[in-house]
Write the structure tokens for this entry.
Amino acid sequence: AQSVTQLDSQVPVFEEAPVELRCNYSSSVSVYLFWYVQYPNQGLQLLLKYLSGSTLVKGINGFEAEFNKSQTSFHLRKPSVHISDTAEYFCAVSVGGTGNQFYFGTGTSLTVIP
Amino acid sequence: GAVVSQHPSRVICKSGTSVKIECRSLDFQATTMFWYRQFPKQSLMLMATSNEGSKATYEQGVEKDKFLINHASLTLSTLTVTSAHPEDSSFYICSVFWGQGYGNTIYFGEGSWLTVV
């Protein structure tokens, strides 16, 4: 069975400080990995994804994530956060290349403090 | 730009009435769309898979007769909440899966807030 664990439900961070949002997954097969961001009262927007190739992937808004197969992790990072980064962040895993095998973490609420 | 459009973004209905939410794939013909429900401060819960030209596939515990899904064309899926009750109030989100050759990625609509009074 597949599962996605986001270890931190809430992450407060001061503006311009770096941030890391953690995501670990469990799967016995190859997976695709994603990070989505949800701003208040909105749908989910794709931040970045790992399908294959370089394990360091860069996304929108200055975010990046690194796929670590040995640690089954896909942590999201940003070197300097902005107030506008305050949002809910979801890690997701896709297995088998079909849409209905997307598994989402419980989300991490990032709050940027001025 | 947006690849999935959802309408309405907010709807209020009276208890016992039905309400329809539309999900459109803007740039891509989607044979499969997905409907999720999200409660405040929680993750997404997959409700059903909408299949163009055939019956939707519902997840365990989701009432088929209450949440009617119609996928009549390659770009439009609708979710109808029938005989709505206050406990159906929630945020409903649709998504489209772009498969092999298109990034193997899910793209989401903007979501629809349903409030049943």
